[in-house]
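Sequence in, structure out. Go.
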Amino acid sequence: MDERKFWIHLEYRVCFELAGFRHAATRIYWCDGFVPQQYILDDPNPRILGYAWIWIGSNYEDRYAFTLLLDQPVPSAEEIDWSALLPPDDVTRWLTVDPGRKQLVIEPSAAVPDDPLPPRSTAEVPLPDVPILRWPVRRRRGRWSGRGRR
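Output:
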């Protein structure tokens, strides 16, 4: 995978991850692209900095700073294994979103397997302590009708 394809795939992968967040407020976020600006590759903490276009719902787009953390220093961007940086679909905890600071931190090496939700039976679901509301049922001409008056 080359660098151009990586950023496109990462955009979709971030959308998928945001949709799976537990907090409803962040589930309405989605990514509309990455613009890498600064490659700090030979540092003890190698990273790529830039900005991402993040939509909140369908009405509002904002520019978020992003940091993509790399595992190890590399001499140049051409030597980055881009496909290894793309988190698989079955992992999580590699993306941190800070809406207050408008920042994303992407750390592929922090990814852990996504825990599937445990199956729940209907016996485990507590029933509400309120009566169930139904449409009024009226008796007309010797038969029951849920439609009311005709």
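Check: Residues 23 and 85 are 25 Å apart (CA to CA). The beta strands are 29-40, 47-56, 60-69, 91-92, 95-98, 103-106, 112-113, 138-140, 143-145.
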